[in-house]
Amino acid sequence: MPIAPGSTLGILGGGQLGRMTALAARTLGYKVHALDPDPDCPARSVLDRCIVASFDDAAQAAELASQCDVVTLEIEKIATAGLSAAARLAPVRPSAEVLGMVQDRGVQKSWLSSNGFPVGPFREVATSAELLAATRAMGGACFVKSCVGGYDGRGQLRLSGGTSTGGGDDLEREAEALFGTLGGQRCVVEQALDLEAELSVLVARSPSGKLAVYPPALNHHRDQILDWSLLPGPLSASVTGQAVQIALDLAVGLRVEGLLVVELFLLKDGRLLINELAPRPHNSYHASEVACATSQFEQAVRAVCDLPLGSVEIVRPAAIVNLLGDAWLDGAQPPFEAALEIPGVRLHLYGKRIARPGRKMGHLSATGRTPEEALVAAKLAMARLSAHAGLPLPSR
Ligand SMILES: Nc1ncnc2c1ncn2[C@@H]1O[C@H](COP(=O)(O)OP(=O)(O)OP(=O)(O)O)[C@@H](O)[C@H]1O
Ligand SMILES: [Mg+2]
């Protein structure tokens, strides 16, 4: 049954993804409530009600649901107990089952591999001795990622494999130190893969089973944080076809209600492997706001409200470049006017009051005749902002 415009949407999480979802919901005529631990969260200024509570407060998740017609989420670290409590009062999309599988990296990787989806070599470990054994089994260079709580490269470290002197003791010391740095908690050890490119695919699935899949985005990371993204990603028909099929199979297999983003690695040897899943809007599809007939945020609202899904057609190719807190020099704002002078460039700020290095403050988007042309404009705009803080230019 559709939840019609005029109803109230609840969002667990009030970060930038919640803010942009709330704005899209408002455009469609919904009222929006959200729950977030931060009273100054980015979504706050565009909400009808903001509940300030921690992500593991099941009672407050239920309170949110009691005033809403449907509840969704914008962040994975919501306690599944909260989702279950909310689900007694309103439909919760995606479900606690989907979130429970996705929010633990170890559980997610095992689920993907045991259900026949392509993932790289990995092992779940619980002690530094297990970490060392896993690293040796994978031949040295690895990514070690805590099972819970990581994002934007936080909660994960790269292990070089003790190559400096080649000695086994080096590796042992490195593994022990690294395990301690990650808090001595359960981790997934992944072989460091030889990447040709990174891409992602966004699929929407409504409760009545309708599907809409976007063309893959091509993503570029710097220091494990998304730097820029192109939509549509200039990829071969074969890679595009495989990526889209993986996303559709996952959305159907998991019976996702709402959005699912699949992050993928294209290896130098041509294989396409799944990095991770996110059952929510995603940084790599921010370009959909300017590139597509339906933005990912509007699509999220349509999907969780069981409305007809919107067209995923590319109206004009686009690119985004992330704007991190590093561009705020001694608290001074970057010169936004200089970026906005460039034709086709738009500024998207998330309303975060405190800028910190590595913190996502906003992004710049640009459109062009081709995704590459859009990227040139977006990077030029970012260069004008970065110059003021003496920062390196967006990476190639
Ligand atoms: N096994 C790997 N081999 C090569 N590169 C990797 C591997 N794992 C991670 N990376 C690099 O680090 C980036 C971040 O990894 P991952 O997506 O696992 O972390 P995250 O903290 O969830 O990041 P985000 O929140 O941006 O998705 C990847 O996009 C990729 O660039
Ligand atoms: Mg990722």
UniProtKB/TrEMBL annotation:
Its EC number is 6.3.4.18. Residues 109-305 form the ATP-grasp domain. GO terms for biological process: 'de novo' IMP biosynthetic process. Keywords: ATP-binding, Ligase, Nucleotide-binding, Purine biosynthesis. It catalyses: 5-amino-1-(5-phospho-beta-D-ribosyl)imidazole + hydrogencarbonate + ATP = 5-carboxyamino-1-(5-phospho-D-ribosyl)imidazole + ADP + phosphate + 2 H(+). One of its GO terms (molecular function) is 5-(carboxyamino)imidazole ribonucleotide synthase activity. It is an enzyme of class 6 (ligase). SUPFAM superfamilies: Glutathione synthetase ATP-binding domain-like, PreATP-grasp domain, Rudiment single hybrid motif. The keyword Ligase applies. Signal peptide: none annotated. Gene3D superfamilies: 3.40.50.20, ATP-grasp fold, A domain, ATP-grasp fold, B domain. ATP binds at residues 105, 145, 150-156, 190-193, 198, 221, 275-276. It holds the Pfam family RS_preATP-grasp-like. GO terms for cellular component: cytosol. Pathway: Purine metabolism; IMP biosynthesis via de novo pathway; 5-amino-1-(5-phospho-D-ribosyl)imidazole-4-carboxylate from 5-amino-1-(5-phospho-D-ribosyl)imidazole (N5-CAIR route): step 1/2. Belongs to the PurK/PurT family. Homodimer. Catalyzes the ATP-dependent conversion of 5-aminoimidazole ribonucleotide (AIR) and HCO(3)- to N5-carboxyaminoimidazole ribonucleotide (N5-CAIR). This is N5-carboxyaminoimidazole ribonucleotide synthase. The gene is purK.
